[in-house]
Amino acid sequence: MIAIATPGQAILARTAVLITPAWVEVRFRVGLPAVGRRVAADQAIEMLCDLLPQMVESRLKYNHLDAAAIQDQVETAEDADWLRQHLVQHGLVAFVADGAVLPRRSGVDEHPSEQAVAFQSPPTLRVEFSCPNRGRVTGMGIPAGVTLIVGGGYHGKSTLLKAIELGIYNHISADGRERVVTHPAAVKIRAEDGRSITGVNISPFINHLPQGRSTTQFSSQKASGSTSQAANIIEALEAGAQLLLLDEDTTATNLMIRDRRMQMLIHKNKEPITPFRDKVRQLYQDYGVSTILVMGGSGDYFEVADTVIAMEDFQPQEVTAKARAIAQQYPCERQLERRFGPLTPRFVSGQGLGASPGRPVKWKVRDINTLVYGTEVVDLSAVEQIAEAGQLRAIAVAMVYAQQHLDGQRTIAEIVNRVMADIQAEGLDRLTPFPQGDLIVFRPLEFAAAINRLRSLKTF
Description:
With 460 residues, the chain is α+β, with helices and mostly antiparallel strands. It is built from eleven helices and 27 strands. 40% of the residues are buried.
């Protein structure tokens, strides 16, 4: 066996291949042929001395490769980087190019669907860029602020949001999403029944609980849908999120909407939850954090939305003016909040990541969703922007590495930023005692999300 980490559709910085101006280093695994418990020497010699040099010759040397395909791949990645870097100065948080193919073949196959219809921007949202390689590119620009994606069932609302969600990464040529780019600090938020929460100030959404339980330093070993979603939002903001992505299908209804009739039946002093609908506008006004929300079942968000996009047969139409007219004709008459509320930093204790500094922690990645860290099983299935298992492996070694920064005087964000600075300076090899070929660079937002889901996390 000669095996190397297999990449997916996303272009990610990996440790499988290290390229310098002087040389190329490829990291792979070899399973030596054997007879019983002995190495089959003749076959091993053939594999290492004949087959391996042939692979190097045919796969690593430029003159044996498709030069046009290499050039296209490089230019595709450069253009995506350029587009993402220019979103903010154009007042945008996401861009979906005309001609993009958003649907995938299946939930387990990330290749583009062969039956999909190419995306076309509505004229009122169409913007134009001049990319350094491809040149003129047009598509739908989603402005900063509060954006609703509405429409009937199975018309492409969640498909569009999923493409935006993964627009934080570049994609390979012919993926269909090469020029779908999103603000790099975008975070997908969802409810997460049963997750662990440690010392999070969820009072902007839940301001009192029965039996006098605190919500300014809320902790739970088995959170409900509403408390978990509230914590996910606050933790994302704490980690530096600038764009929240939500789909009504995976959110807690009681944290999303509460109509006027229910307000009248259950008085506010008996209902601890302030729905996201009453906070989404304040979140943008107070902290500059935008939101893109898929909402097909409630029009309560019409009055707080800056942009409304309706999906029909996987094609978008801007219906902002129509939504505002409906909101004026049928006002919801809700009692609204004036401000979002405070964001309180949390400091990590000296043993806050499940072990004392310097103490080794064993870990194992079972799949893209599950990390075994020490004696804990950490469920990351709700952290949807982890694209490959190699990122989760890198997060695991980063959590072990972060032990050295636990002095009881740093917040979660400060610890995460220190580790990310070391990676930026020296690469992922800084985190491990010897080079590994199966690690992939991750974002600080997913790193913080993994730390926050440790049941042994200790904060103050």
